[in-house]
Design brief:
Layout: H1 12-25, E1 29-30, E2 46-48, E3 84-90, E4 96-101, E5 107-111, E6 116-122, E7 129-136, E8 145-148, E9 156-160, E10 165-169, E11 182-185, E12 198-200, E13 207-211, H2 229-235, E14 250-254, E15 262-265, E16 271-276, E17 283-287, E18 300-304, E19 316-317, E20 321-322, E21 342-344, E22 350-355, E23 375-379, E24 392-399, E25 402-411, E26 425-430, E27 436-440, E28 445-451
Parallel strand pairs: 1-2
Antiparallel strand pairs: 2-25, 3-28, 4-5, 5-6, 6-7, 8-9, 9-10, 10-11, 12-13, 13-14, 14-15, 16-17, 17-18, 18-21, 19-20, 22-23, 23-24, 24-25, 26-27, 27-28
Amino acid sequence: MIRLAGAVAIPAALLFAATALAQQTEPVLKGAAAFGDWRADEPGVRRLISPQDQPRPYVTRSASNSAGPVQRPQGAEPRLPAGFSAELIASGIDNPRVVRVAPNGDLFVADSEANQIRVYRLGEGNAKPVSDGVFARNLNQPYGIAFYPPGDSPQWVYVANSDSIVRFPYRDGDLKASGEPETIVRDIPATHHWTRDIAFSPDGKTLYLSVGSGSNAAQDMARKPRGGLDAWAKSKPLGAAWGSEEGRADVRAFDPDGKNGRIVATGLRNCSGMAIQPATGAPWCVVNERDALGDNVPFEYATEVREGAFYGWPWYYIGDNEDPRHKGARPDLAGKVTVPDILMQAHSAPLNIAFYDGRNVRAGSGFPAEYRGDAFVALHGSWNRGNRTGYKVVRLKFKDGKPTGEYEDFMTGFVTSGGEVWGRPVGVAVANDGALIVTEDGNGTIWRVTYGDGRS
């Protein structure tokens, strides 16, 4: 129950329903109206961006507008829709990035710049850790985390370093690795985009790995590949890069032991976050697109990763929009670019995605039923844009397992009224009790977002 000053108690469910109805009556921002900056952000604001909304490149100059995070103001907390609240789990962490939930509910957090994996065990129905510590040290910019085999009794914790995938023996409830890491995949190219995410297919037979590009627009690929372009195109997956970019801007797949590596999809400039959609079992990516083409070019995106698909980088973007820096270089790829499923504001920097899967949440707990099947994405925030955007967590809308294309502001308030940034969301995960866990690396905090009284 929620009490309002001078009013009778209102059931939280009724309050949410009224709020949701009010939000649905607000128009969805479309086209140029959806390109607003942080000042237009508010929980419940909805946007729908379509491929035909893509402006021409160079309509605005390329801006350098980085946000140096400030200390979190006294009492500052994220803003959420009515009925939701956020509690602080931890603060002062060096560089909290990806967060994943173990089957027993422990939170595993990649503290990337500290080269370690942290673990937090929360109290029943609250955000206070009853124990925390370092699960593994001496890693190399760890980011992605996955438990294997998928399910209730994993035997391994896989960790994606910038240059390798390793795994540690694991038993339910381990707060510290019981053995040394075993290297599963070696020699991953590590420079520039270093955020390597991993995920297992539901049957546990496939390990997916994302590898971002080594540059913004691959200007060094103006030189043709050895043996000529025709021979390269015939022998490699559609849109595969070469030279220093070979094996990059891809999603790869391996057996759980790291063998039988292959390329699943190409042209994804920097897939910094992966998740498996529970309704379909398909892998999804959130992708940081290229810079220096203007404030609103090109759109960022979330998409199902389709086998054999080419998503455009570096020659094209959002379909057949040709990057002017590679004009005329790959006419053979025109008409073969897969358009992503959900488009988001340019330069918002999506870093992680989590589906809200109601099957693992006890009945009567967690978020309202209309959230089941949707996804949450952490937007780290822009630097290559005149007016900043991002710095929030958004909700991607799905219907019957399929994306509607709409996304909605869910967790905002990381920018002060004066425009200073104190929070930069990175990781999102759904806890066993239905809470949403969010990390941000501006002030090194972890948050637990709940609905109603937060009890499970």
